[in-house]
Specification:
Blueprint: H1 2-14, H2 17-34, H3 40-61, H4 72-92, H5 96-101, H6 111-135, H7 152-157, H8 164-184, H9 188-205, H10 213-219
Helix pairs in contact: 2-3, 3-6, 4-8, 4-9, 6-9
């Protein structure tokens, strides 16, 4: 038994940072899948523990960074990425499939209800981006640009059950966010763009559509998925 433990320790110590990151990431994803939640607060607690505390603990233990840094490049790219993606959220908020699905958790436009809701949405975005763009992209940037393509399939599968248009776009979105974060060496761009998008989407869905849905549907009639 002692010899077996010694062999396991030697093999573990021989693993590279990238190998350890991918193994831990797989374990965290399994934990995430088996840890069911109901309300938004429970979801935030789970996501922060699994997708933030886990990756950060691993990074700190190995003296590594996983994108939790801010500089001029990161701020500039945050502005550019947010400006690019927010119009998609605005258009998306007018689609019937999106309006019938969101908000995922009950809220109203009353400031006392929507503000805590918005803060929790940002925390969800922080958790998601720390895991997918932090641990699985910026954190393993030693692989080169191909690290951007580690997570899109898994990220897309986690969107199964959501509106078809969101599911289809989730993979390309993962690549876009990963690319910007990779060149920024920071997850700030994707955290802000994702968090702001979630908040804006819920806020818009709770109001009358900013664009008549029939106009959006007519303009997007070429899209091969239900809208």
């Amino acid at each position: 038994m002692t010899e077996l433990a010694s062999t396991a320790r030697r093999r573990l110590s021989s693993l590279t940072w990238i190998q350890r990151s991918l193994i831990v990431a797989a374990g965290l994803l399994v934990l995430y899948q088996y840890w069911s939640t109901s309300g938004l607060t429970e979801r935030v607690v789970r996501d922060m523990l699994v997708f933030v505390v886990g990756p950060l603990a691993l990074a700190l233990a190995h003296g590594r960074r996983i994108g939790w840094q801010v500089d001029r490049v990161a701020v500039r790219n945050t502005i550019l990425l947010s400006a690019f993606v927010l119009p998609f959220y605005i258009v998306g908020s007018t689609l019937p499939s999106i309006r019938s699905f969101y908000p995922m958790w009950f809220t109203t436009l009353a400031l006392g209800e929507f503000l805590p809701h918005a803060i929790q949405l940002f925390l969800l975005a922080l958790a998601t981006e720390t895991y997918f763009r932090g641990l699985l992209c910026v954190g393993v940037r030693d692989l080169g640009f191909k690290c951007v393509f580690i997570s899109p399939v898994v990220y897309a599968l986690l969107h199964a059950g959501k509106p078809p248009i969101e599911f289809v776009l989730s993979g390309p979105t993962d690549v876009l966010f990963g690319t910007v974060d990779y060149y920024s060496n920071s997850i700030l761009p994707s955290v802000v763009a994702h968090g702001a998008g979630l908040v804006l989407l819920d806020w818009l869905v709770l109001r009358d559509p900013v664009i008549p849905p029939e106009i959006t549907l007519r303009a997007l009639r070429w899209v091969p998925v239900p809208l």
